[in-house]
Amino acid sequence: MFRKEEKAREFLLGLKDDIAVSRITVMEIIYGRSSKKDITTMWKQFEGLGVRVEEIDEDISARAGRIFETYFPTRGIGLLDTFVAATAIERDMPVVTHNKRHFDFIEGLELIVPY
Question: What architecture is the 6-112 domain classified under in CATH?
């Protein structure tokens, strides 16, 4: 999960708040894994950090649709990014990312670039 990135590990371990991720983020992490063992390790890391998975519901889906309609024509926002942003907005949580340019134009979305 940490891509052998010690700074990411330190950042996550230093968080005082609950850690939550969108179901889309989980799927993106799994997509980058090469084996079932890697996926099992990811789930163990999530458990150790107390990570909560935010499922996509009707409100998130509707918000993602509005974000996509608004920003795809002018910014080319990706489908997965719309669901990550929508989840954060609907759950009143920030998005923690290094891909600031994927999200910094979305009104009402708080971004944190961790390090």
Answer: 3-Layer(aba) Sandwich (3.40)
Q: How many CB atoms lie within 10 A of CB 82?
A: 25
> Within a 10 A sphere around the Cβ of 84, how many other Cβ atoms?
26
State how beta strands 20-22 and 52-54 pair. Answer: parallel
Which is nearest to 23 in space by CA: 56, 60, 57? Answer: 56
Dihedral sign for Cα atoms in the order 8, 80, 82, 61: negative
| Chain segment 69-96, per-residue pLDDT in tens | 999 999 999 999 999 999 999 999 999 9
Instruction: Tell how far CA 95 is from the center of its chain.
Output: 6
